[in-house]
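Reagents: none. Just compute today. DEFI8 protein.
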Amino acid sequence: RQLRGAIEECKRLILELPEHSERQKDAVVRLIHLRLKLQELQDPSEDEPNLRVVLEHRFYKEKSKSVKQTCDKCSTIIWGLIQTWYTCTGGHGGTGTPGAAPPAPPSSRPPSPGCYYRCHSKCLPLVTKACVRSKVSHQAEYELNICPESGLDSQDYRCAECRAPISLRGVPGEARQCDYTGLYYCSSCHWNDLAVIPARAIHNWDFEPRKV
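Predicted 3D structure written out:
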């Protein structure tokens, strides 16, 4: 409570001091330090585990404090200086819950790379998108049918990944089709990335990248 009071007092002082004066600059620096201290108390990064496993993502805590990234879950900036964040950088396969200890890695199998999904620590429990790299590693064969669509109604007008309501009219959410699987996704799960589709390359000698 005292810390919040000091922050409010510092904000008031900044507004009262002459603009661009040295005293105002000093007050801004003090405000930054107070906010950092408050953030540390609210979200102590030292208590966060180095590895958290969610939907086959193997999230490792990042050490960088200077690089600004965008959270793939909430789409807001990750401020490395004051926020704890994780990246799915892979490792040996396995499932678990956030904060779970990793299973013992088999020595005969090399670690697999991750999908590089980035997000705030606070967003990890909200992740609904499974690790793409892990999903691909489980599927030994390519889909050789061209865009095997079964219709949005077969998905109950919901995203194939997170089950959010979607429609072709964009209300309540835009339906985006993956040209590889034929399934429909919401804009949070389908990012309009482009890739060459194996089935089109084999059947039609078509190497034009499509949305996946």
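Helices lie at 2-16, 22-42, 132-138, 198-204.
Action item: order primers for follow-up constructs.
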